[in-house]
Amino acid sequence: MAMGLVAPTAVAALFNQWDDTLIWSCLDETMGVLIADDADRPSAAAALLGDFRFCAGAPCEGLLRFDPTGAAHDVEIVVPHDAAWERLIAENFGAAARPHVRYATRKEPDVFDEQLLSRLTEALPSTVELRDLDDEALFEACRTAAWSRDLVANFGSFERYRQLGIGVVALSNGIPVSGASSYSRYRFGIEIEVDTMPAERRRGLARACSARLILRCRERGLYPSWDAHSRASLALAEQLGYHLSHPYPVFEVTRS
What we know:
This is GCN5-related N-acetyltransferase. The protein has 256 residues and is an alpha+beta fold.
């Protein structure tokens, strides 16, 4: 069976039950790639973007490992479509596949209280300021620091980030210490990534950056989608106005 890249029209039906913006990014060809077990009559497909792999259709072992992007992942988040995919992932990767639960939030464009969000952007220590991530030096600072790399990593270059991305960073003495940015972009919005330097956590910085980013998205007519990696991330999302849609299972696969 020949695995390969495939056009969105060939596999769109396999993903029609998903409500995830990373898949939408692949389907509208903004970011990411789509692979399938057969280019003409696919029965299984996967959407690859950043550290994520969404598996749909009939379970297919080859789609768990094939990656035409050549990207190196220490850990890849593999998202199964159903229980059959879950079993295949567990059987193939064994102890290297750690089960985890993520939390999807509802897509509610009109749910945000802009006055509340504005107040949250001002709830900062006096030594910290918010800046839009629209400067190449800030982009490079985020790209090269381990804690902040995911804020910009999926765009490859500052030029591409400036074209498709949007972000906000909190600066302390001119150095980024927290940020909220587009992990990915699709036609009508972004998927939010939030990170904070470990020593600067629990100071309200992530909340302030996220609130400013949501406001910036609304100014541009973009939807700021939030998919929570943990209950703590979900709690932050709920403070900003989001509501839980559903938890869902994934596997965090350590790649050797």
